[in-house]
Amino acid sequence: MHRDALKKLFNKFKKDELIDVLLDRGFLDEGFQRTTATKSASVSRILKLLCEKLSDKQVAVLDLIYHQLHPKTKEWDVFLLSGFDPERARGSGLTDPKNFETQICSKLQLYFNVDVCVQLYNNALWIHLAFLENKTSQSTFKDKVYLVYYPLSPYIMVTKMKAAYKQYILQAVTDVLGCTELKQQKLSGKDVQSLADLLLNKKSQGYFSEFRLKKMDSNPLCQENSARRKRRHSGEKVIVESEITEENKEEIGEKDKWMKNAFGSCDQPVLEKVKFTMETRFKGSKEQDITKNPFKCTVKFEGPSVIEGIKNLGKTGAADVPLPSHLSTIHSQQRNHFILKDRKRPREMDSLKVSQL
């Protein structure tokens, strides 16, 4: 393995994280002494010990471990396995990483010089593919593709890949899993666990997620607020909730009830981007001619967690509740790209529906 490539990989890890991984895998002796040296010095020290010892396979394992620990460094696309038969897959032993690795490697090595590594992590098969541009070249593996597959599920997540490899990779996965084809879905993101949650738990999102995750709202009576406790000890008068009169108590109660039914009390699955393509009539003045034809535009929501952000818009009153269904049901749609159209029925032309792409 080329020293510069190995150094680049080591530098991706945090200092203690790198040492822990190498010790856990047995690449470093148990007697390895941790020091207070900088990360750069520690990496140089480890390189001297391992540069000539690690095989391409072992480096592939380390690279895969890094992406398991830091999956958000990649953008993941979702593919549907059309014609997938879980019973057949169960009988063919595809839940075993070694078996899966052998089969997909045999398919791809017909066309490329490729290094394949498969590991089971958090109930999913993590697949590392490293390609060489030239089949006879002995240089460092450069082009890499990562896949995540939950055994017996009809979906697989794949990172971006070059067009030169895409057809062969998808065909290899199709053959190994015994499906008819892979169809790319309108769902992508950086949080692998959230993507899996959206795909595998479609019918248990929102309010029902509390039962699946076995979580309940925290009881505000269990622990006194620290600021209130501080004021009480200082002799400052504390205004208790019973002394506060809410003018719109009924309205707030209805809003909270709707929000809980729509989103539940648990954290929402993470999607960094949600896009709506609007093909609706413009809801403006009747004097404007543009109301006669569809008004096409695209609206994008971006942020650390779009669904959580939409939930907070309703919770804080920044958006009117109830929210439109195309906003309140994103967590159950298995997608983050939607097309909104006017209903075709005359009496409902002014309402929107989310069309299935």
Automatic annotation (TrEMBL):
Compartment list: Chromosome, Centromere; Nucleus
PANTHER family (alphabetical): CENTROMERE PROTEIN N (PTHR46790:SF1)
Superkingdom of source: Eukaryota
Record family assignment: Belongs to the CENP-N/CHL4 family.
Native source organism of the sequence: Actinia tenebrosa
GO process annotations (BP): CENP-A containing chromatin assembly; chromosome segregation
Alphabetic keyword roster: Centromere, Chromosome, Nucleus
Record Pfam families: CENP-N
Gene Ontology terms: cellular component: chromosome, centromeric region; nucleoplasm
Name assigned to this protein: Centromere protein N-like
InterPro entries, sorted: CENP-NAC/CAD_complex, Chl4/mis15/CENP-N
